[in-house]
Amino acid sequence: MKNNSKNKNLIKQYLHKIFYEDNPDDYDFTLGETTNSIVVNRSTSYNQDVQSNLTLENEILETANTSNDKVFQSINVNLEYIKVRFNSMINSDIKIREFTLNARNKQYQAFLVYIDGMTNQDLMNNYILNPLMLKNTANSFDGNQNRILSEVKTNNITVRKVKKFDIVEYISNCLLPQNTIKEFSKFDDIANGINSGNCALFIDTIDIAFDIEVKGFQQRSLGNPNNEIIIRGSQVGFTENLRTNTSLIRRYINNENLVIESVEVGKISKTSCAICYLKNVANRDLVAEVRYRINNLSIDYLISSGQLEQLIQDADSPSLPQMIATERPDRTSSLLFDGRVAIIVNGSPYVLVVPAVFSDFIASPEDFNLRHQYSNFMRTLRIVALGFSLLLPGIYMAITNFHQELIPTELLYTIISARETVPFPVLFEILIMELSFELIREASIRVPSPIGSTIGIVGALILGQAAVDASIVSPILIIIVSFTAICSFSIPDFSLGFHFRIMRFIYILLGAMAGFLGIAAGICVHLIVLNNLKSFGVSYLGKSIFKHNRAGNGLILSPAYHRENRSEFLKVKRPKMQDDISMKWKYRQN
Amino acid sequence: MKINKLSAIEAIALILIVTINRLAINIPQAILISCGSSSILNAVYISLITILLVYLIVKIFKNFPNSDIIDVAEFLGSKFLKYLIGIILFIYIVVTSSLFLRDFVETIHILYYTDTPIIYLLIFFIVVSIIANFFGDESIAKTNVILCAIMVVSLLIAFSSVIPNITFQRALPILGYGTYTTFFSGLTNIFAFNGLMVLFLVPPMLNDKKDLKKSSMIAVFIATILVILATASILLAFAFSTNISKISPLYMLLSNNEFGQYFQHPESLFVFTWILSFMSYLNISCMLSINICKKLARVKNGKPFAILVNIIILIVAILPKNIMQVRELGTYISQYVGTPITFIIFPIILAFANLKYKKYRTNNHDVSKD
């Protein structure tokens, strides 16, 4: 009997575990609505209705307004403030170093605040703590406290103009051998400095704090660009550090007219960004528009240039890239010389360049380094590849379903015999192969690089061959999909490649629906979308891309000596970038 | 009409596309049927007359920069004439576009989509037109430049491919059915250029008013060359007695042509370019109709009209029972409505408006119009 009841209990427990909705034994965490302390405060102090207090809007969730908080004279108060503001009790990397400062034989209580890992420890030890703490000739010297600037005697009365001793000036000018020291009285400015890798020095009795630049975080060194590989040309790419990137551009543009404006984006992240342009070339309205768009972003954080690109682009709906994203300083510099504007985001190795036209995305950075014949040959190839990668599967679909007469008779027989054993319609067949290919591509990117290439080979060869052997797809389709894939790899721009990958599926469906009529409808709408698109006020598919005497942004690249004009659509201040006769050594002007 | 301004190239393409689209369908056939072996002579004759008429139209438009025929009608006969001309124009554009759409769709239906319902094919054109007109005039005009260029190149390739099959004896007797048929009754073939009606609507769209003369003359010149070439290709490749009743004669020409061992039947590629070009034509027809509606209804945003106009075009297109009815109706409207409106009534309105303008100017009245 006991055994029976035990078994019953076990079964009951088991069923309970399975079916009972809220099993108290299960660990379950659900992120529910949390009430912010400020909301509670508001509800108690202002006695507003309950409904409005429960709505957790950004406005309410914002922390207390600290913009007016100023440094106190008392070091203890400052210390407490910093501890609370930086949550130093729970923040392990916030370091506060309290010490006694020696100045003119007097001792002051002081403390340094910094974030561990973002500062250079040697700099802090040798050039901040050492001169301030240890007694030396500089801080031990106790000369005249007040400096007499001028002295006048009248009727035995001496009038002296005296400059009083200023401890702040003394510390800044005599005790801290650092090149960048700022004095701030607001806590917000000090917090910004600490967050960006500086350290803050607070001294007793002084109502300002020193912001000393001691940045020293680990960063990636300069390396090759990963996704814009070229044979002939510079092999340096941008890194994640903003200043490194600006210096890379400065190395190419040795001119004081290169302006690098700093802006901060993100209410919480305060990500540093830079707007770069050539002041004597770039259109003023274009620069103003870029500045306007970036300054009017109401977001909490910004991590990458890709995120910024989506926030400042003209049109959201089309999947077409509307700005150039490059990791090459030489290309960026070349575009800046053309009169465009570059936007650098701290933490992102991709620099955005605006405005962009369609032909920019089929140009390779190498084009300028090669003879124009080679470049034009490559560009022609790319344009052909572009057309194939977009339309080939769709056209195959249209021809096999509606326009068979277009195929030569012998080839038609081959296709028919190859498809004889395939039980699926062409549409199904082509969608299977295209999806498989997209999956292989996606998988090879996600897996570690040594396995990535293996997956590509396995996918392409084994899966394709197996699919043919299993009569799931016809061999001709393998050729079509492979050729399309090869063509799509020749598109230099990653984002444009994505757009074409998506559009390819639409063209396949249109081809299946109505053959050439469907594809023509797709092309017509596609062209209309392209023609409607603008990038920072510039037509995406303007007629200027067909002009060849430009900076190489058209479909056809002129010889180097014939690239007299900057891009017409940029409406730059200096339309000409070289003389009509640039090779003066060869063609002398009389 | 204050819409986005067109450059000279865009204006040329706009005028051209309305004219040359008919080449692929029925213009050469109509000329051939009426004039026989003198078709080339007739084509040259009507081309010269058209060039002359276009020159005159541009000349008398000179006093009305930035005005279209509706503005001129308002100037001449106040609001009554404005609404009358506007409504006539709207109906004419919508009806001709619908009939032409049906004709074209019937042709591709016979050629490639025999099992597909006509309405299914029509919807493709209508959807493209609605989308295009939602995107606006500027993108339509820019797209038209590309598609028009493709169409012209396609036609030129088609004509040049016929050269090996040409027999010049087919143009004999040179006067065909006689002098009267070639030069008097054959004058009705000027309907081939009925599309030039768009000239009366283009001026306000131009970026530079001086472009009207240049764009019109270049467009009409290209159009006349293409009409002559199309007529010549068909006449010299087929015997004029050949009756090609249903299918486009240009298509027949291409399908009977040899393009080598590997490209046995590339005519569907040409049809592909014609579809593109026709879609552009329909977008422009719809755009012009919307602009007329905007003007008559005095509204700024014409996008809501896009669906309405396209639905009307679709309904009118499905009304005729078969292709023969469409062609009959189309030819009737072209010859007895389109040609008189384009080459007689509108020029007369312009001429009277000029007289009124001169009279006002002599009386020191301010007649400057925006």
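Residues 8-343 of chain B form a domain with the Amino acid/polyamine transporter I fold (CATH 1.20.1740.10).
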